[in-house]
């Protein structure tokens, strides 16, 4: 800045010298003729004083101009420097924005979610990424309604709900993202598309966010879609594997919890019962009206349900209960194609459940044959291997029963089974029960054993459900709090006699009387004239039950009908009963030992 000041003074002074020089020249040629010297010439004219001071004045002015010029130059230099820095900053930021934009574009196009924006007219904006095409197919999206491409598969009702939601979201500026997604009509939908002639289904999950208003002061919604088809399939497969393992585990637990001979007997009889169900189903397909077949079907399934429940095969009991309920609902109906399809579907569920038993038994048999198979298979836990080792040890135990031949079944199995059935039926009802089993008969033939077993199990469950009182009721009636069921087998000539009794309350005759009237079986006036034994006979008819609520123990009205059918029609025997109100019931079944 000092250099600029000196330069200004010098230039000012030099310029100022022009004025006195010019004045001297003028005076010299004009005035010099009257003066004798230059000094006199200068002093003789006052103007000369002013003229000769001009260099100094202009020098001072030059100083000011120089200072001003220096300041201006400094300001210009500073401004240029700032402009250069700002230009560099703008260039840097522009470069960063371009790089960021490229990065964001790359992220959006490679993100695992499809993204698009939608305005108040439901039109998709140009801001949608490439994954939208991957998820929903290659087509035009920008400038088209989201309901004409992505949501075209929705039902009209769903479309209307979604349109209302979009209208609400765009007109509610205070709504947060969480609020919007909580109000979203559905967060998942199935997208159906055709790929190379094959119709496929995708599971699509979505969420939304509200974008700020743009330059035109218009709000938009951003939809984010995620194709979770593969993930859902993997989850379902994993859940299926876990469910299968849990299912087989529950069967193994039931195997451990019951006597081996009882289990083997149950599985063998289950095969027989399923074969009988198939025969009933075949008969129904050939005969549209067959109440007798439906009743037989319900009775077989009821037996499966009760025995499976007693042995803790809960899944099988539930499938049987579902089948039983449907069969009972169509007893009096004309069997249509729809009915047959439903029955076949329910049978398939039972067979599928039986398949679990077969797989468990097959695996257990393999472990018995291969004692070294101690390690868990791929995908299985060490717990599974431990269970299987325990099962192998369980199955390798020596038999305790005498081998009576392929066609004879020892009655000790029946003893164990009725005890289990009684205890299992009593637990949910809060009752206590004891079974006294006495037999002078060692065994029964295969078919007779199965029929007697079904008959006794139904009697046991009916005693617990209807006859035996709760501990409090028994104590109030002067009885022991534990109810007693007595079963005795004996031979008489060429016959087998089975005596059954309990010490419960006996048949509630008045309740039976009211029920036959309610069901329209007997007119009220006629019902009043019937004796106790006449009324009790109705208990043995198909579908008759005094229990309103159906459960795993009673309520279907099939149990006593099975007792009657097995004792008389199938065993070719005779059924007698006795009722002692407040003291219990008695049954005597007599059937030929052979034949």
Model description:
The chain is built from 19 helices and 11 strands. The protein is α+β, with helices and mostly antiparallel strands and 595 residues long. A 5-stranded mixed β-sheet has the order 6-8-9-11-10. A hairpin with a 2-residue loop joins strand 2 and strand 3. Helix 8 packs antiparallel against helix 11, helix 10 runs antiparallel to helix 11 and helix 11 crosses helix 12. The longest helix has 65 residues. About 4% of the residues have low confidence.
Uncertain runs are 32-36, 373-380, 397-406
Oligomer: single chain
Write down the secondary-structure element order: HHHEHHHEEEHHHHHHEHEEHHEEHHHHEE
The total of helices stands at 19
* Main sheet record: 5 strands, mixed
- In spatial order, strands of the major sheet run 6-8-9-11-10
Estimate the global geometry from the Cα principal axes. elongated
Could you give the distance between the termini?
A: 137 Å
Radius of gyration: 52 Å
The percentage of residues in β strands lies in 5-15%
What is the number of strand segments?
Answer: 11
Q: Give the helix level as a range of percent.
A: 55-70%
Overall structural class, as computed from helix and strand content, comes to alpha+beta
Mean pLDDT: 79
């Amino acid at each position: 800045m000092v250099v600029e000041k000196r330069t200004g003074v010098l230039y000012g002074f030099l310029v100022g010298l022009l004025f006195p020089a010019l004045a001297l020249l003028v005076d010299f040629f004009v005035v010099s003729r009257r003066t004798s010297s230059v000094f006199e010439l200068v002093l003789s004219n006052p103007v000369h004083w002013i003229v000769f001071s001009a260099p100094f004045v202009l020098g001072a002015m030059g100083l000011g101009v120089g200072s001003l010029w220096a300041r201006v130059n400094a300001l210009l230099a500073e401004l240029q420097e700032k402009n250069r820095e700002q230009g560099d900053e703008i260039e840097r930021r522009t470069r960063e924005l371009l790089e960021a934009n490229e990065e964001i574009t790359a992220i959006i196009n490679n993100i695992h979610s499809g993204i698009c924006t939608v305005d108040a007219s439901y039109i998709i904006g140009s801001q949608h990424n490439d994954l939208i095409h991957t998820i929903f197919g290659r087509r035009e999206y920008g400038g088209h309604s989201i309901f004409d491409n992505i949501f075209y598969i929705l039902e009209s009702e769903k479309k209307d709900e979604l349109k209302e939601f979009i209208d609400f979201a765009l007109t509610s500026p205070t709504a947060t993202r969480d609020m919007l997604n909580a109000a979203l009509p559905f967060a998942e939908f199935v997208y159906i598309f055709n790929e190379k002639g094959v119709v496929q289904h995708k599971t699509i999950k979505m969420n939304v966010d509200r974008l700020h208003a743009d330059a035109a002061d218009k709000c938009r919604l951003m939809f984010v879609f995620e194709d979770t088809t593969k993930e859902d399939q993997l989850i379902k497969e994993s859940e299926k594997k876990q469910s299968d393992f849990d299912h087989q585990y529950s069967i193994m637990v039931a195997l451990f919890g019951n006597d081996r001979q009882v289990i083997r007997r149950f599985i063998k009889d289950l095969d027989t019962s399923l074969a009988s169900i198939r025969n009933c189903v075949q008969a129904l397909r050939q005969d549209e009206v067959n109440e007798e077949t439906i009743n037989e079907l319900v009775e077989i399934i009821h037996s499966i349900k009760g025995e499976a429940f007693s042995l803790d095969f809960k899944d099988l009991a539930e499938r049987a209960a579902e089948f039983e309920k449907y069969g009972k609902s169509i007893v009096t109906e004309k069997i249509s194609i729809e009915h047959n399809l439903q029955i076949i579907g329910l049978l398939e569920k039972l067979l599928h459940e039986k398949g679990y038993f077969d797989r468990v038994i097959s695996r257990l048999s393999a472990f018995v044959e291969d004692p070294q198979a101690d390690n868990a298979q791929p995908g299985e836990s060490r717990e599974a291997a431990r269970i299987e080792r325990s099962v192998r040890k369980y199955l390798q135990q020596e038999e305790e029963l005498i081998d009576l031949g392929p066609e004879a079944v020892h009655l000790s199995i029946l003893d164990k089974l009725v005890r289990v059935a009684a205890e299992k039926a009593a637990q949910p009802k809060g009752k206590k029960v004891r079974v006294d089993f006495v037999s002078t008969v060692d065994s029964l033939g295969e078919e007779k054993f199965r029929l007697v077993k079904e008959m006794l199990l139904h009697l046991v469950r009916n005693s617990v459900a209807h006859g035996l009182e709760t501990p409090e009721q028994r104590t109030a009636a002067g009885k022991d709090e534990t109810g007693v069921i007595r079963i005795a087998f004996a031979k008489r000539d060429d016959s087998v006699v089975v005596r059954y009794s309990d010490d419960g309350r006996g048949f509630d005759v008045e309740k039976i009387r009211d029920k036959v009237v309610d069901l329209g079986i007997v007119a009220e006036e006629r019902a009043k004239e019937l004796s106790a034994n006449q009324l009790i006979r109705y208990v043995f008819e198909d579908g008759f039950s005094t229990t309103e609520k159906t459960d795993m123990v009673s309520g279907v009205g099939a149990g006593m009908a099975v007792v009657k059918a097995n004792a008389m029609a199938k065993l070719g025997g005779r059924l007698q009963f006795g009722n002692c109100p407040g003291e219990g019931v008695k049954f005597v079944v007599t059937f030929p030992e052979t034949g």
